[in-house]
Design a protein that fits this description.
- The chain has helices at 2-9, 12-27, 37-44, 81-92, 106-120, 140-148, 196-210; strands at 30-34, 49-53, 74-77, 96-99, 122-126, 151-159, 162-164, 172-174, 179-184.
- By secondary structure, it is of the alpha/beta class.
- The chain has one domain (2-214): 3-Layer(aba) Sandwich (Glycerol-3-phosphate (1)-acyltransferase), CATH 3.40.1130.
- The strands form 2 sheets. Strands 1-9-6-2-5-3-4 form a 7-stranded mixed beta sheet, with helices on both faces. Strands 7-8 form a two-stranded antiparallel ribbon.
- Helix 2 (12-27) crosses helix 4 (81-92) and helix 5 runs parallel beside helix 6 (140-148).
Amino acid sequence: MGFRAKDILVSDAFLTFLYHFIRTYSASFSFTVEREKPWMEHLDAGGTVLLCTWHQQFFAAIRHFKHYAPWRPAIMISKSVDGTIIAGVARRTGWNPVLGSSSRGGAEALRGMIEALKRSRMAAHIVDGPRGPAGKIKAGVIRLAHATDAVIVPFYTTAEKAWHANSWDNFLLPRPFSKVRLSFGDLLRFPPTTDPEEFEHQRMQLEEIMTPGLAGKLKGIHSA
């Protein structure tokens, strides 16, 4: 029974249905986008952009990210049933999923992301991976930016009314017809380094910048 259920969840018919359901659901939002122009101008000028967010907040951005399909941007997605489902939605949104995560197939996936980002000059990355821990940025995002000369652009989604799942990341799901804001941060450049201490400093610097953007129970997780 479980095997048949898995087959249904990853079937083309179900993934197509899910993609259209998400788009229809998201269309009910009163959506506002802030500070998109600076990084778009950098991309248009020939730069490379790596958009970064917390696992908690990617859902609300899915519909808007369809606008970026002409670049065929890449995104790393875990090798799991959930990951296969998300990858199916990403492909229908015009994105190029690279399968792997810090816990499974990470090195291979990072190489794939580097190659894809060099080609398209645009990608997105979930900074805390598919399992967390919450508020902890994985090292892969810094390695990816170093290898591709990409600027990192954090983004955050907030909702006037939302549900927060009882999960490790307090996953954010805006309620129908809620006011939703997608906000992009500054363009951040981290110079390549072979010094482990400097590398860790860069990772922690990005973590400090992005942590205040967490929502729900995780808001201000490192403020103590």
